[in-house]
Amino acid sequence: xxxxxSFLSFILxxxxxxxxxxxxxxxxxxxxxxxxxxxxxxxxxxxxxxxARHMAFDDQGVLFLSQAKAGKVVALPDQDKxxxxxxxxxxxxxxxxxxxxxxxRLGDGYYLYIAEETQVIRTKRxxxxxxxxxxxxxxxxxxxxxxxxxTLKIKNNKLYLSVGSSCNVCVEKYRLRAAISRxxxxxxxxxxxxxxxxxxxxxxxxxxxxxxxxxxNGRDRLGDHHPKEELNIIHQGKHYGWPYCYESQIxxxxxxxxxxxxxxxxxxxxxxxxMAPLGLAFYQKGNLPKRYNHxxxxxxxxxxxRSVTAGYKVVRLQLDASGNILSHEDFIxxxxxKSGAPDGRPVDIEQSPEGDLYLSDDYSGxxxxxTQN
Length: 373
Fold this sequence. Notes:
This protein has one helix at 2-20; strands at residues 40-46, 52-57, 63-67, 72-76, 89-92, 100-106, 109-115, 120-127, 131-132, 136-139, 150-155, 158-163, 179-184, 191-195, 203-205, 212-216, 229-234, 245-246, 250-251, 269-271, 277-283, 295-300, 313-319, 325-332, 346-351, 357-361, 366-372. The chain is mainly beta.
């Protein structure tokens, strides 16, 4: 019976992976019928970036973007500062599902780190005209299949790598999966930082506490309302439940009760199930109206198998001046038609050095810029 259940889980998870492969929007990209606060404006920063995924700004204030399915990393300079990218500069191509991006200055130069499906590479900047050296593999043998995106962040000379699960719900063979690992910047000294995180695509360090925050995509096939999507504050050595438990230490009956869920960490905040949060950005202050100071903005990619479709929006978490969560509200909606079909799927959200927000959309193949009206 257990083998049959595992096989069905594999089939169902395969369907979830295929859901990502929805054909991108074929119409000319536009602002559609987006709904946002009257004192906030949005424009298309770049309109020719198919499968736009994760972003990072370099030390020159230039936005870099991964196009995972296209196998590319590009730069989107805006030298005249008019809020529209001047051009698309190819940095790397023919890569295997490049996703997470991070920049760091080391003793011998300035580096771009890129998390691909089965490895992490870095490439040294040779000059500021977007010329980079030959990629160097620093972490390899990351298991493939299943959730294929890899996200990375760098803090205090340590690299944090998030690797999703291989399945909808199962006991993983490799500890790197459904976990966040930590490495030295040369790829050595790998260790499991936290586990039980089914698919934490969006991770970010809090500028308030220094703690690692991450949004997590829960398992499928427990109905429309469970498990709720999670925001976790991720601490070293902690277990966040998956696959044995979900939400606030609820046992997953697929696994019986041999696992002690009371020892797992409950989420810091929850949202409607299956909305697929993928990116988050802390915002203390910037170019938005002052009432948005002390916020976290979260991009919800949208559900694929919910009977009532949900997500396809950006949500704002209101924080207090110490970085504690007070409440949440919709910030931008309108990517979902009344028919339930999408016109866009938000992925990653980042604040620029100038104080604007940038949002990627892998369905329409665009990057948006969000600022004060």
